Amino acid sequence: xxxxSFFLQYIKKPxxxxxxxxSTKYLGNKMIEDIDFKHTxxxxxxxxxxxxxTKKLLQNRDKNTIIMIxxxxxxxYNLLKDKFKLEENLFIIHDSCxxxxxxxxxxxxxxxxxxxxxxxxxxxxxxVSDEILKKTKSILKKDGKxxxxxxxxxxxxxxxxxxxNIDLKREFRNVPPAYILSCxxxx
Length: 187
What we know:
Blueprint: H1 2-12, H2 14-17, H3 25-32, E1 42-46, H4 52-60, E2 66-70, H5 74-83, E3 90-93, H6 100-106, E4 112-117, H7 126-139, E5 140-150, H8 156-160, E6 165-171, E7 178-184
Helix pairs in contact: 3-4
Protein name: Phospholipid N-methyltransferase
Keywords: Methyltransferase, RNA-binding, S-adenosyl-L-methionine, Transferase
GO molecular function: methyltransferase activity; RNA binding
């Protein structure tokens, strides 16, 4: 069912969705493998879609860790609200992650350890990508990590403009196969 819903959203807004199917559990595992859940106070997720990564974050986090997710797509937002309605310390926000700083103030969060992203930077306008990456760098603590996946390395140069230290991995068990970029905020 979620695959059909995801595909329909892709048909409606391919530039915003970026793929025809949700991410696999294999990609989800690679996306979270560098997270030190034991010492993490706050994780932000951009573009959770149907919540593949969100579910893994919630399963592995300490109960006091705050997770804040940003979803622009209204159908996905509603799906996430319903799917995770019983979770504590989870803020599901229907807005662009370009406004992340405003929500950190609203929810009195002053330390972000990780930002996980499912955003399709290759299909977003460069000005939007620039703004998101600039804000991400500014909200992450020193040595915090920005972890994103992309289907192509076309936007690596743009990401390196903000994050010089990038660890690159590959996950072939995804449709399509994906690159995982784990970026350290050296500030």
